[in-house]
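Budget justification aside, the reviewers requested a transparent look at the raw inputs and outputs of the sequence design task funded under Objective 1. We therefore reproduce one unedited record. The lines immediately below are the structure tokens for a 195-residue chain.
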């Protein structure tokens, strides 16, 4: 069976809001095993405290008049918070509810997911590239960190993340020990344009 590479119509990216919590939770459930997905409580916390660090890729569905928006379907998202850890990387503690540190300059991506139906269309690259560009230009922080499964390291390297080694905090936890988790980081640099 060949994968269809045609992109869906009426796609757009916008910040997530608390009203999106149910769709975000459903996508987390589809995209991650139970031990890796964010709980609804954690999703709501992130959407309430750091909506500017949570981005959604949606498809708009229109009424028959082709003008009026009927609804929108979330097909991908990124969830983030700001962290301030001694290692400057994600820890189990920094992923918990209540641990967003607004004054920090380090943005932690806790979740990147694309609905299975829309995978293999470079939509994760599109979403991450948009996310990085917006955060760079808004000067919200100085760097983005992520923990990635070892097999996903080349994907994140293609969008500018650098490998910093194995995350021992997460690997030493029995709920995450089934695979290697790698620390990755990307500096945020504002794009300068000539006038």
């Amino acid at each position: 069976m060949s994968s269809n590479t045609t992109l869906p119509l009426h796609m757009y990216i916008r910040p997530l809001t608390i009203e999106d919590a149910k769709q975000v939770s459903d996508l987390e459930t589809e995209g991650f095993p139970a031990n890796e997905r964010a709980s609804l409580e954690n999703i709501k916390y992130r959407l309430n405290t750091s909506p500017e660090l949570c981005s959604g890729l949606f498809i708009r569905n229109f009424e028959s008049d082709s003008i009026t928006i009927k609804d929108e379907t979330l097909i991908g998202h990124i969830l983030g918070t700001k962290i301030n850890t001694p290692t400057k990387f994600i820890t189990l503690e920094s992923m918990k509810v209540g641990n967003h540190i607004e004054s920090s300059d380090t943005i932690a991506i806790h979740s990147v997911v694309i609905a299975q139906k829309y995978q293999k269309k470079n939509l994760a690259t599109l979403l991450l590239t948009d996310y990085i560009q917006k955060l760079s230009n808004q000067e919200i922080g100085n760097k983005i960190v992520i923990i990635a499964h070892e097999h996903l390291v080349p994907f994140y390297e293609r969008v500018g993340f650098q490998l910093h080694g194995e995350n021992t905090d997460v690997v030493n936890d029995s709920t995450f020990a089934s695979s290697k988790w790698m620390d990755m980081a990307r500096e945020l640099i504002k794009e300068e344009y000539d006038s």
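The longest strand covers residues 69-83. The chain has a mean pLDDT of 88. Computational costs for records of this kind are itemized in the attached budget.
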